[in-house]
């Protein structure tokens, strides 16, 4: 009812749906005939998941949704309800341990969230009520309350700014806690309320706000305010994002502000952005599920075999009912089918430990604790930003070692995003700075050298445009967060491009002095102050790719100044003005500079009034405001006059080229997805070695397919041609994991419009065909550059690659908000803590300060994480099959009576205590190859690619190994116990001693197996491995009543003590442990022999480059370790290695070929062989000092001097 009456004051406005009406200060509006207060949520923030009352049922429900937990719950219930051979404790206690540990972890995390919520909700705020400041807790704020916020305080809810302590109604805000941007943003109060800057005056304000319902986009807000006075007609003003202060943001450089609460509590934008991202699952989890199914089938098979064999055995009458164990009447009357089913369940319970329930909690602990190693890595620490790496999720650590495709942004990721003004072009004339002190233009290579330079008035117009068309703020003090340039004035902006342009204008005499009360001031070359009234700002967005301002000078002349990408500006200016500037834009782009074009338009007073009316009408719309504004802006920015262009340099990041080169050598394909123009992006790709000099580039751009009506036909022809070219020119059996240089390399360049044509063809069948051919071309190419990409298109590219055959693991890395979509889409998302805010870092799985850190993150940490967790998973299945196989074999010797082989305590403690800590320590600390070697040699990454450690081959090896050892443990002990007496008093050992002997051999063997696999020993490894064995012995004595006499009555009394008194038992256990470990020892020995045995001549592919007409001697690919031990001197090692490599006749041909590491010697080696030697030296000895290199030179010269 009330909203309908408000509609009368907005003539022509459509009916609004999905809006809310807020009465400022809860004052009833004069025009409201029937005021019914709307109900809004309170201001309490609830990020916690549980309460005291629902924690137990809710947490248990969530945990038992996991298949393994639910399975063990069923087993436990079977043990409780059915007469099973083992106690319910054997399944219940491990399950209780896993459930308890997980519940404690989740409960602690939720307690931290409760504490954080309480801190926020109980914070003190001031609300204006009846013209007085009233102290309240934050959670008591209601929608419509007028809130007072002071400097350096955070906003307690989403607030519409009404007034501030600044006369012009502005305030400065940082949103680092929301989007990570540390720069100050300027927000404005509407002029009609900016004068209400005291508690008394603000309480007299009568107004209503009508705005959209809450939505999570931080940068969008649509609303309007109706201000009532004594007059009948209210004043309506539009409200936008510049008027909204977000909860969690901080007030800076402003004493205080007054605002009205519009979104509170869980409806605030900050709370809406806390919605969890979609869960990403690693390939290791999928492998675990597959292995679980196999072991579940093994479990079912064992239970079925034993059930069947039991009734086969009982088919003999004296076996079914011996004289000493007659069946009861109840047993005889039980239905046979039911008896078979209960027996099957009993065998399931007996063998259920083959499923490693504790593996899940161990994997979670490994991932959680392992993630700290990334955050603690000092190599990731950046001195400039004083920050290191950040891990937002630990579930994908191992996925870092399986990446096949890397998608990277360009600006701020490959480049520094530190802009420097290089040159500009005005009317076809290029201007550069001659010296650092020069404050005027100089013509260098203009198209019209006769004229020398553009007209003075055009130069001044161009510089005024640079000083006016931006969103830069100025501050006098220097201690301001954000992107800062140290000049007389401090320039602050969220875009480093704008600061570079303003700084560039200042170099040539036009200084931007700032904006106050809507008036922009600048100082010209004559040191005169020029003042312009800022009438409208047409803000930049990724769709328009340009921004404009409408200003009025002191003489009353009205101008529109526009700057933007050439593709967005050229279609909107006079055609005859384009050509002379286009040449410079293309040349600058080829040089790798970022270019912008500058245009202007002059309005008469009547034309401006028409434009002003259009903009205001669009701004007042509550529905589809953005679409209407975009249409109005599109109509306004036409028929402009082109002035010139600018060139800004964005330098390549340190080691960006080396990082991309290393990723290629590691077998990864790197794609660059950027919004920049093709020429700029291509130049950057060459600079960072994505494209090599011999790379043949294939283009799918508007330039190659044309702008005619037959664009789709031309696109189809190009796709087919490229596909044929790659199909016939590409080796059929070449893996992407091989090195470069073996064939012609191809690179693909595609732009956004062509990609849209491929994805959105007029016919669905044609579109599917285009996608298929396009993806086949991309797969064959060594590198791909996608330019002029919108954020959504970046995500579409990633999704397309994810869905190709084989489902390759993808990684996306970027630094800006436009990269968030592709970061969320890829398997692994990496955010750069860059200068375009922290949206990418906050939405990523991992965040690093620089692109170069990606090398160590993948090649070292990713490699190690994958190897560790793969070994953990395989080891868990291995040790559990070793554990349960003797139990299965034992049934063949006990009449399938379901008699357990192990004591209940041993069953319970096996996975919880005796074998859990060693594998956890291994999975956290193991380095089978040192981190330095992994980082230096990217080819090692290929050895674990395609989930190599968790494929069915390694899995079957571990399974057969565990089956072999389990069989050895059982039958070895069985043959030992064939002797009639084993004790001096003539007594024979019983079944519990038999089981304990098997168990002891089992625990020692699986622990020593892990010790053999360990390559990187620390005191922690020693402590947990030997400590676990000592604890087992201690527990066995304790459980046997030796250390704890009160356990005399249980069946294990003195069992372990009697067992270890037998010499035969000791010898047998030692022998069985050796036999069990023998296959592993044998395999290690064979590997060492193979490393020492010559394999024939080296192939060219084993060298970094190509060697023509050279005969290589038969040598081992890996040099004998004994030589390393004998030749501790790197020089002798290099000489021996070189003598192994080539024939003397070949060495003679190389003299004078190329100097070795710049050494001034007559003798020399080919550069590729030099690189090979250097790599081997680095692997064996690490970085060499100058003295060691001198020894290397001498020994190499000694080899070459044989001629």
UniProtKB/TrEMBL annotation:
GO terms for biological process: phospholipid translocation; positive regulation of B cell differentiation; pre-B cell differentiation. It holds the Pfam family E1-E2_ATPase. The chain crosses the membrane at residues 290-313, 344-363, 955-977, 989-1011, 1023-1046. The keyword NADP does not apply. It comes from the Eukaryota. It is found in: Cell membrane; Early endosome membrane; Endoplasmic reticulum membrane; Membrane. SUPFAM superfamilies: Calcium ATPase, transduction domain A (SSF81653), Calcium ATPase, transmembrane domain M (SSF81665), HAD-like (SSF56784), Metal cation-transporting ATPase, ATP-binding domain N (SSF81660). InterPro entries: ATPase_P-typ_cyto_dom_N, ATPase_P-typ_P_site, ATPase_P-typ_TM_dom_sf, ATPase_P-typ_transduc_dom_A_sf, ATPase_P-type_domA, HAD-like_sf, HAD_sf, P-type_ATPase_IV. Its main location: membrane. Its cofactor is Mg(2+). It is an enzyme of class 7 (translocase). Keywords: ATP-binding, Cell membrane, Endoplasmic reticulum, Endosome, Lipid transport, Magnesium, Membrane, Metal-binding, Nucleotide-binding, Phosphoprotein, Translocase, Transmembrane, Transmembrane helix, Transport. Its EC number is 7.6.2.1. Belongs to the cation transport ATPase (P-type) (TC 3.A.3) family. Type IV subfamily. Component of a P4-ATPase flippase complex which consists of a catalytic alpha subunit ATP11C and an accessory beta subunit TMEM30A. This is Phospholipid-transporting ATPase. It comes from Vombatus ursinus (Common wombat).
């Amino acid at each position: 009812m009330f909203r309908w009456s408000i509609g009368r004051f907005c003539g022509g406005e459509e009916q609004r749906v999905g809006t809310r009406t807020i009465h400022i200060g809860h004052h009833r509006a004069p025009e409201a005939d029937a005021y019914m207060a709307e109900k809004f949520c309170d201001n309490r923030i609830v990020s916690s998941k549980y309460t005291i009352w629902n924690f137990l049922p809710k947490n248990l429900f969530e945990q038992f949704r996991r298949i393994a937990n639910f399975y063990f719950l069923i087993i436990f219930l079977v043990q409780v309800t059915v007469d099973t051979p083992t106690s319910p404790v054997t399944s219940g206690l491990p399950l209780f341990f896993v459930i308890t540990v997980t519940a404690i972890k989740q409960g602690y995390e939720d307690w931290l969230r409760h504490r954080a919520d309480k801190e926020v909700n109980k914070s003190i705020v001031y609300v204006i009520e009846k013209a007085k400041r009233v102290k309240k807790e934050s959670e008591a704020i209601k929608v419509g309350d007028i809130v007072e916020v002071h400097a350096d305080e955070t906003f307690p809810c989403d607030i519409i700014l009404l007034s501030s302590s600044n006369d012009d109604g502005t305030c400065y805000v940082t949103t680092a806690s929301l989007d990570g941007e540390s720069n100050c943003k300027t927000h404005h109060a509407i002029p009609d309320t900016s004068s209400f800057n005291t508690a008394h005056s603000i309480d007299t304000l009568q107004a209503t706000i009508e705005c959209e319902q809450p939505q999570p986009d931080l940068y969008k807000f649509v609303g309007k305010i109706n201000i009532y006075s004594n007059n009948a007609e209210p004043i309506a003003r539009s409200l936008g994002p510049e008027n909204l202060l977000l909860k969690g943001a901080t007030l800076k450089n402003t004493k205080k502000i007054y605002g009205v609460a519009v979104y509170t509590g869980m409806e605030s934008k900050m709370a809406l952005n806390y919605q969890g991202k979609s869960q990403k699952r690693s390939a290791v989890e999928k492998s675990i599920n597959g292995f679980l199914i196999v072991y579940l089938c093994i479990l079912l098979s064992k239970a079925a075999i034993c059930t069947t064999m039991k009734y086969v055995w009982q088919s003999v009458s004296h076996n079914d009912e011996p004289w000493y164990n007659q069946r009861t009447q109840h047993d005889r009357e039980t239905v046979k089918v039911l008896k078979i089913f209960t027996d099957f369940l009993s065998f399931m319970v007996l063998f259920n430990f083959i499923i490693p329930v504790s593996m899940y909690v161990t994997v979670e602990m490994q991932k959680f604790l392992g993630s700290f190693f990334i955050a603690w890595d000092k190599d990731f620490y950046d001195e400039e930003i004083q920050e290191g790496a950040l891990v937002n999720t630990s579930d994908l650590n191992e996925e870092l070692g399986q990446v096949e495709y890397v998608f990277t942004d360009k600006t701020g990721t490959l480049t520094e995003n530190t802009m420097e003004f290089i040159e500009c072009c005005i009317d076809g004339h290029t201007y550069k700075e001659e010296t650092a002190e020069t404050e005027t233009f100089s013509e260098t290579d203009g198209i019209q050298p006769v004229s020398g330079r553009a007209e003075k008035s055009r130069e001044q117009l161009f510089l005024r445009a640079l000083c006016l068309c931006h969103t830069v703020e100025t501050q006098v003090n220097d201690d301001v967060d954000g992107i800062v340039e140290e000049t007389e004035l401090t320039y602050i902006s969220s875009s480093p491009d704008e600061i570079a342009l303003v700084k560039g204008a200042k170099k040539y005499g036009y200084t931007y002095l700032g904006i106050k009360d809507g008036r922009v001031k600048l100082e010209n070359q004559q040191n005169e102050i020029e003042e312009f009234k800022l009438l409208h700002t047409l803000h930049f967005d990724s769709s328009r790719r340009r921004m404009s301002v409408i200003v009025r000078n002191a003489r009353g002349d009205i101008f529109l100044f526009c700057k933007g990408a050439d593709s967005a500006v050229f279609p909107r200016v006079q055609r005859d003005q384009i050509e002379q500037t286009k040449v410079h834009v293309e040349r600058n782009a080829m040089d790798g500079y970022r270019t912008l074009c500058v245009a202007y338009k002059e309005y008469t007073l009547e034309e401006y009034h028409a434009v002003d009316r259009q903009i205001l009408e669009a701004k007042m719309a509550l529905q589809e405001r953005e679409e209407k504004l975009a249409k109005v802006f599109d109509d306004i920015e036409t028929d402009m006059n082109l002035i010139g262009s600018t060139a800004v340099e964005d330098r390549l990041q340190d080691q960006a080229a080396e990082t991309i080169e290393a990723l290629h050598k590691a077998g990864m394909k790197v794609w660059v997805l950027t919004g920049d123009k093709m020429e700029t992006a291509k130049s950057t790709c060459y600079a960072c070695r994505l494209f090599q000099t011999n790379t043949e580039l294939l283009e799918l751009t508007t330039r190659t397919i044309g702008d005619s009506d037959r664009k789709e036909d031309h696109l189809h022809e190009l796709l087919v041609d490229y596909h044929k070219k790659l199909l016939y020119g590409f080796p059929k059996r070449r893996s992407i994991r091989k090195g470069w240089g073996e064939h012609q390399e191809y690179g693909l360049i595609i732009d956004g419009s062509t990609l849209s044509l491929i994805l959105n063809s007029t016919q669905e069948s044609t579109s599917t065909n285009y996608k298929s051919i396009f993806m086949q071309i991309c797969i064959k190419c060594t590198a791909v550059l996608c330019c002029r990409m919108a954020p959504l298109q970046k995500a579409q590219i990633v999704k397309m690659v994810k869905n190709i055959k084989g489902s390759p693991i993808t990684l996306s890395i970027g630094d800006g908000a436009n990269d968030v979509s592709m970061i969320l889409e890829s398997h692994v998302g990496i955010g750069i803590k860059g200068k375009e805010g922290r949206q990418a870092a906050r939405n990523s799985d991992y965040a690093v300060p620089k692109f170069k850190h990606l090398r160590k993150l993948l090649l070292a940490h990713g490699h190690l994480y994958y190897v560790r967790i793969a070994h953990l998973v395989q080891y868990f299945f291995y040790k559990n099959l070793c554990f349960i196989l003797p139990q299965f074999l034992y049934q063949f010797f006990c009449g399938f009576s379901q008699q357990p082989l192990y004591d209940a305590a041993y069953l319970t403690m096996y996975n919880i205590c005796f074998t859990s800590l060693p594998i956890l320590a291994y999975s956290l600390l193991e380095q089978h190859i040192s981190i330095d070697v992994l980082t230096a040699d990217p080819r090692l990454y290929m050895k674990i690619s395609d989930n190599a450690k968790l494929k069915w081959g390694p899995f079957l090896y571990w399974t057969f190994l565990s089956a072999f050892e389990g069989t050895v443990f059982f039958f070895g002990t069985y043959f030992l116990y064939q002797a009639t007496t084993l004790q001096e008093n003539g007594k024979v050992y019983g079944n519990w001693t038999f089981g304990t002997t098997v168990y002891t051999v089992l625990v020692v063997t699986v622990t020593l197996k892990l010790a053999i696999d360990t390559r990187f020993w620390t005191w922690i490894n020693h402590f947990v491995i030997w400590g676990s064995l000592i604890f087992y012995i201690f527990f066995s004595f304790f459980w046997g009543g030796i250390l704890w006499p009160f356990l005399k009555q249980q069946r294990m009394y003195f069992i372990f003590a009697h067992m270890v008194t037998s010499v035969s038992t000791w010898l047998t256990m030692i022998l069985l442990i050796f036999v069990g470990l023998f296959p592993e020892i044998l395999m290690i020995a064979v590997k060492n022999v193979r490393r020492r045995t010559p394999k024939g001549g080296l192939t060219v592919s084993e060298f970094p480059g190509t060697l023509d007409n050279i005969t290589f001697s038969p040598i081992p690919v890996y040099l004998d370790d004994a030589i390393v031990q004998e030749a501790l001197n790197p020089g002798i090692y290099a000489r021996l290695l070189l003598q192994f490599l080539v024939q003397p006749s070949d060495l003679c041909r190389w003299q004078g070929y190329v100097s070795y590491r710049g050494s001034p010697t007559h003798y020399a080696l080919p550069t590729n062989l030099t690189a090979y030697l250097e790599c081997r030296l680095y692997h064996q000895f690490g970085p060499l000092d100058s003295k060691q290199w001198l020894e290397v030179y001498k020994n190499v010269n000694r080899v070459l001097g044989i001629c």
